[in-house]
Amino acid sequence: MKIEKENKLILDGTKISWHQERIREWEEGKRIAPITIDMALTRACNYGCHFCYARLQENDRFDIKKEHIDNFLEDCQEMGVKAISLVSDGESTLSPIYEHTIITGSKLGISMAVATHGYNTRYEELERILPHLTYLRVNISAGEPKRYSEIMGVKEKHFHQVIQNIKDMVEIKKKNNLKVTIGMQMVLMPEDADQVIPLAKLGKEIRPDYLVVKHTSDSEDGKLGVDYSKYAELTDTLEEAEAFSDETYQVSVKWSKINAEGKRSYKKCHGTPFQLQISGSGLVAPCGMLFNERYSRFHIGNITQTRFKDMVNSDKYWEIMNHLSSPNFDAQSMCGSLCLQHKVNEYLDGYKKGKFTLTPPTGVKPEHINFI
Known about the structure:
The chain contains 13 helices and ten strands. By secondary structure, it is an alpha/beta fold.
């Protein structure tokens, strides 16, 4: 069932083609600012999800304080960063500057977004932050309390609180006629496929704007033990889940990554200058897969110690970025599976290989355009 909203809400792809001026500046060798930054405000989390990639990426922890985030957001505005998503490697709702960061970034003209397990925030705070968000996505990988407890590593009562919080988000959005998109995301381990349909049904009942089902990323040495060959056996179940879509509720499966079986078609990583990641420790690295201390040679600096604009304009920053897009780097063998920048990398790889030219995109301008 194809619904009109799918043409606007891109959940399995990239929107970088709508930012061609930044691509051309990059081609010209200019020191561009990222379009989108994925970051966390803390490394802490009060959940224990068994699919969590962030627990593989421990690094030296520093506290991101109000003064640090204010400097960072001012730099982002000055440099032309268009969007910041509080996702990355920690549960940002645990940070004392969570609400301040969202509202301050929004007032500076930066598109702000959040991904969270959805447990910590209550109605009053939701009323304050939702007007300042482009989207709020709840990571929820089960549709039944018992299985939620097993998969997410918390007590069953957490499930019921999260469901109430999502209902509150939907109510606040409707009551105040807000543009924010409310979503749910299932990070699917093949062994947890029994929860796909219950979650799709639950979403239809509580009415967020969408549910997206995605693969689980694993490290280059497979520490999470994801068997990517098993996803192919789930096609019928995933198609059944998508059939729950209607005019105001979209169920989307990230088919391109699930069908890729954890493999890349490209070797060079061109995407990180456009879509940078920052750890909840304040560490600036090209991507989340390089947060761990064993990748310290790719670590650029820390926003608690150095101004972000100074890092982006530094020789070190661009030496690292240029290395990742050089023949000396092989994303197929040196990286974990299907990273955040994967779709951007596919697009830029095709462009650099001459498979297409940069032409103005046509059709309906997608939502969340600054989150590439």
